[in-house]
Amino acid sequence: xxxxxxxxxxxxxxxxxxxxxxxxxxxxxxxxxxxxxxxxxxxxxxxxxxxxxxxxxxxxxxxxxxxxxxxxxxxxxxxxxxxxxxxxxxxxxxxxxxxxxxxxxxxxxxxxxxxxxxxxxxxxxxxxxxxxxxxxxxxxxxxxxxxxxxxxxxxxxxxxxxxxxxxxxxxxxxxxxxxxxxxxxxxxxxxxxxxxxxxxxxxxxxxxxxxxxxxxxxxxxxxxxxxxxxxxxxxxxxxxxxxxxxxxxxxxxxxxxxxxxxxxxxxxxxxxxxxxxxxxxxxxxxxxxxxxxxxxxxxxxxxxxxxxxxxxxxxxxxxxxxxxxxxxxxxxxxxxxxxxxxxxxxxxxxxxxxxxxxxxxxxxxxxxxxxx
Length: 372
Hints:
This protein is 84% helix and 0% strand.
């Protein structure tokens, strides 16, 4: 079976579940009287666990191959959904996030790397992967509110576990044994960012800045922002589903239509403008802007995947991508943890404005470096 299609299909199943959990979890935690500061800290735990697992799995997979980690993803998908099914306290939700973060880390450690190995059209296949993520996440988000109403939170989480279980046999269709003998010295060489090219080091810092910006509007922020503006679960799911569907459409339609550096600058300016407007919006206008943000997200993703395809090394795709994402998710963890505190003190305007201002440094600097 075509290996690229199997990878994309596994990604679709994972993103569908992520779309459901992205709506269901923050609303379920709110319903179970967990305050917004604690919710922020719980969601922040996901990104750090995700990235630590991702870097470890990516390092090993560059030597042993990718298949094992797709199988692990399916197994942990079932475990994490079952933990959320039983969770009632913040600590139990943190445990669920540890499992979910490890699950996601095992997939994202190998999905881009395997696709880059299987095709010559590297930027395009990464954009197609991101499009599949957006569309399947959107479908999960669109249906999440209805699942919550029809199946309640518990039934919705059982459905997520069933989808995760289907990943396991699908992953067995992938062909790929051990690539080469594991070498600690070689792994440490690839992990040593001091030995990377100058442009890689610059983008390692810039990906941290990007993650710092994105954390202020990630995870629980949009669902609870919409909830605070009077939208119920079904409408929140529909709005965020439409947002992600729009992101997928734009990432597909505008792939390779612009020079990468110009696209990064243009999409970054739109990002700052949209986040500032979101900070001062309310009611119906807030819902409209949340959907419109999807177009900006789709354009941003093209530039991000273009950077990855240009500056990573063929000998160490997994490790190089893992290092860059370590920067991104370290920044994301920090700002996501702070978001709950900012919202509790100054409302949603604070994280949105912080995100808009910080991201300006990323896209302006990236434009200058790429033009060089």
